[in-house]
Design a protein that fits this description.
The chain has 362 residues and is an alpha/beta fold. It has a domain of 133 residues. Helix content is 34%, strand content 11%. The strands form 2 sheets. A 6-stranded mixed beta sheet has the order 4-3-2-1-7-8, with helices on one face. Strand 5, helix 6 and strand 6 form a beta-alpha-beta unit. It is globular and about 65 Å long. 35% of the residues are buried. The structure holds iron/sulfur cluster (SF4) (2 copies).
């Protein structure tokens, strides 16, 4: 496993997306000196018994507002072994000059881009056009790229059209619900309709053309129920540096997102799993797949463990449709007279999920 280090290299962004949780943007940028100190420190202190390398992720704001830093850092750091860079960008600030540079260094730095769907959705959520992003160029150079698609309340009713459009044009997606939205049961019904449309569309497609979220493992739901599941690496094997070199568990705890005076999180022991346990969720069937955002929990309630229950119906609807899709996939391919043990086990598991969730949002 590679250690993940995130560098917030810019507090500035050229967009103003409707779901953006970065409320304290400014023109501040990370300097080359600060970046060099962070990277040198990480290389020198890497625990080689735990990690087999380092991955540095450049984020913002919009990291391309500090392209000169990306360029200087990568050209300086290429001499080190076992390190790699990623940039997580909204994709709208590419130009001839930086595209030429990225192509030259593409083995050393990967470009991860977010795009929310068809043009009307991109405009609703982000105020820009899909044509502002060179997605053909990105897919050509980083063929494993998955486009991060954020679903807002406003874009929910066009979610299926957006995802199908991107996937059918060869662009792999990574959809996720916007955190902080006031999701409710009515939204869950719409989400269910959208997911039905998506699953019907992809059921007859070859496996390599099916969006990866529909094929994700559901096995964690069958782990021991007293196990405390953590939905992300915040404060654990990942670390985030702000523009001045200060360290945060993830961007959600940084001054880009929360007021500097709100620093009670410094008293939380992020290595203690019990800090992430919400007692109200102890009987929830999907708790081992719940994608709660601990940073957002903290922002909202002052604790990392108090999960945002407005997400529950949305998460349950999603898992119901994933299980239903996987059940149909298995039934389409299983040898009914001589099923394998694995197929029987998988079928039992998806049936248990469907019975437990008994989707009321269809
Ligand atoms: S591109 Fe990212 S940082 Fe910029 S406004 Fe949108 S969500 Fe926020
Ligand atoms: S879905 Fe809701 S009840 Fe279940 S674990 Fe997540 S926040 Fe808790």
């Amino acid at each position: 496993m590679k250690k993940q280090c995130t560098l917030i290299i810019s507090h500035s962004c050229n967009l103003n997306c409707i779901y953006c949780y970065e409320k304290f943007k400014s023109n501040k940028l990370m300097s080359f000196d600060t970046a060099k100190k962070i990277i040198t420190h990480e290389i020198e202190s890497l625990d080689n018994t735990r990690y087999n390398g380092l991955e540095f992720n450049f984020i913002g704001g919009e990291p391309l507002t500090n392209f000169s830093l990306i360029k200087s850092v990568c050209e300086w750091a290429i001499k080190f072994e076992k390190i790699h860079f990623n940039i997580i960008t909204n994709g709208t600030m590419f130009n001839d000059e930086n595209m030429e540079w990225f192509e030259h260094y593409k083995k050393f730095i990967r470009v991860d881009v977010s795009v929310d769907g068809i043009n009307s959705i991109q405009q609703t959520n982000r105020g820009c056009c899909v044509s502002d992003i060179p997605i053909d160029w990105i897919s050509k150079n980083w063929s494993n790229n998955r486009y991060k698609m954020t679903i807002s309340k406003k874009s929910l009713s066009d979610y299926a059209n957006s995802l199908i459009h991107l996937e059918d044009n060869g662009f792999k997606t990574m959809p996720s619900l916007a955190v902080g939205e006031n999701w409710n049961e009515f939204d869950a019904k719409i989400y269910s309709q959208q997911l039905s449309k998506i699953t019907n569309h992809f059921l007859s497609k070859p496996i390599n053309q099916i969006p990866s979220f529909l094929l994700q493992s559901i096995d964690s739901l069958f782990e021991k129920q007293d196990y405390i599941y953590k939905s992300c690496q915040t404060g654990d094997s990942s670390i985030t540096y702000d523009i001045d070199g200060a360290i945060y568990p993830c961007i959600l705890f940084s001054p880009l997102v929360i007021n500097k005076t709100n620093d009670n999180w410094k008293n939380i022991n992020f290595n203690d799993l019990s800090q992430f346990e919400d007692k109200e969720c102890s009987n929830c069937f999907i708790k081992n797949m719940c994608k709660t955002c601990y940073g957002y929990n903290y922002l909202r309630t002052g604790t990392i463990c108090t999960k945002d229950k407005r997400m529950c119906a949305m998460y349950k609807t999603e898992i119901y449709h994933i299980a239903n899709f996987q059940k149909q996939l298995i039934e389409n391919t299983i040898d009914k007279f001589n099923p394998s043990e694995i197929e029987i086990k998988r079928l039992n598991r998806v049936n248990i999920i469907l019975n437990e969730l008994n989707n009321s949002y269809e």
